[in-house]
Design a protein that fits this description.
There is one protein chain. The chain has about 375 residues and is an alpha/beta fold. It folds into 3 domains: about 90 residues, OB fold (Dihydrolipoamide Acetyltransferase, E2P) (Beta Barrel), CATH 2.40.50; about 160 residues, Rossmann fold; about 90 residues, Probable gtpase engc, domain 3 (Ribonucleotide Reductase Protein R1, domain 1). The protein is about 35% helix and about 20% strand. The chain is built from 11 helices and 13 strands. The protein has a 6-stranded mixed sheet, with helices on both faces. The protein has a 5-stranded antiparallel sheet with strand order 3-2-1-4-5. It has a two-stranded antiparallel sheet with strand order 6-7. A hairpin with a 2-residue loop joins strand 1 and strand 2.
């Protein structure tokens, strides 16, 4: 049971997601005289932390390790020195969730985009042609993070009629089983009340490509023009980056929002569970395959291929599933020696099977 003085000391943090579990985790640092706060922005070794004393600027070098997945991130709950110049973040509390993608680095490093997130809001613009494969990619990372994904179809006011809008929403819904798909118009305010209710009381991260209307949506949710907005190009509906850092902002109706820069590349990072969640219908079908290790390519008795042949499952959906599985297996193999060895054994096995099949064909020809 927290004392009245302790509760009042942390009351300013409640709108940012503070609860009794965070208070318990912070107790050892409180005994050292450190301040609790949530990281609202990180920029070049410095971060802004909202505390009971207000927003403080702190240096992150004390807790910045060589592992890029363990650096201080927007959304972290931190233990900050009460004074000093510079003031340091001494530690951050164990993360409940983390949204991670792979970078374009040849070292195959992961990059953490946001921490302690409850909802991953994936913005998809209706002003451009739908890229369902990219939606599936975002969803895989969202599920893997531990957050609940929500797909928001932005710029719904640009769709000519309600029937077309309904068809587009259905197309996206079929790629997002178990996920709410919500058409929204920030200009007209349509769908914002539903989205606000979904995000209330938790932490949401806003994700998407440049030009999807993320900053406009963030401003609409915040009720003021906090994020800079630029016009999109008429030729392809795309825009330039307007958000350059990840910022955590309190929503007027409750909860907080982390706005992120537009993401050009969305590489998977050890997201096998997330891929399985996105393509749950394929994994359910696979339980009826004749072979437990069926690759759903040409094996006899494959329930997945049978579903494609009958029209129950689309070929595009299966190809996207295969692609993401291969990519994830590759990235895991590059970062994990055991997985890399297993992948090499799998390659050798398939190579041997291929050579054996070729020998049989040659024998029959002779």
């Amino acid at each position: 049971m927290k004392s009245t003085s302790e509760s009042s000391a942390f009351s300013a943090l409640v709108p940012y997601g503070w609860d009794d579990a965070w208070a318990d985790a912070f107790a050892p640092y409180q005994a050292e005289g450190l301040l609790a706060g949530r990281v609202v922005r990180v920029d070049r070794g410095q971060c802004d932390v909202v505390t009971a004393d207000g927003v403080l600027r702190a240096d992150t070098s004390f807790v910045t390790p060589h592992d890029p997945l363990r650096v201080v991130c927007t959304g972290d709950w931190a233990a900050v020195e009460p004074g000093g110049s510079p003031r340091y973040v001494r530690a951050y509390l164990p993360r409940r969730t983390a949204f991670v993608r792979s970078t374009s680095s040849k070292r195959s490093e992961g990059q953490i985009l946001a921490a302690n997130v409850d909802h991953a809001v994936i913005a998809v613009s209706l002003a451009a042609e739908l890229d369902l494969g990219r939606v599936e990619r975002f969803l895989a990372l969202a599920w893997e993070s531990g957050a609940q994904p929500i797909v928001v179809l932005t710029k719904a006011d640009l769709v000519p009629d309600a029937v077309t809008l309904s068809y587009l929403a259905q197309d996206v819904q079929q790629t997002a089983p178990g996920v709410q798909v919500l058409p929204v118009s920030s200009q007209r305010g349509e769908g914002l009340d539903v989205l606000t209710a979904l995000l209330g009381g938790g932490t949401a991260v806003l994700l998407g490509q440049s030009g999807t209307g993320k900053s406009t949506l963030a401003n609409a949710l915040l009720g003021e023009d906090v994020m800079t907005v630029r016009e999109t190009r008429d030729v392809d509906g795309k825009g330039r980056h307007t958000t350059t850092t990840r910022n955590l902002l309190a929503l007027p109706g409750g909860g907080v929002l982390i706005d992120t820069p537009g993401l050009r590349g969305v590489g998977l990072w050890d997201a096998g569970t997330g891929v399985g969640q996105v393509f749950s219908e394929i994994e359910d079908l696979a339980t009826n395959c004749r072979f437990h290790d069926c690759s759903h390519v040409a094996e006899p008795g494959c329930a997945v291929l049978a579903a494609v042949a009958s029209g129950e499952l689309s070929e595009r959906r299966l190809e996207s599933y295969r692609k993401l599985l291969r990519e994830n297996q590759w990235i895991v193999a590059k970062t994990d020696a055991r997985a890399r060895a297993e992948l090499r054994r799998e390659w050798k096995r398939k190579g041997a099977e291929g050579r054996a099949a070729m020998e049989m064909k040659r024998g029959r020809r002779r």
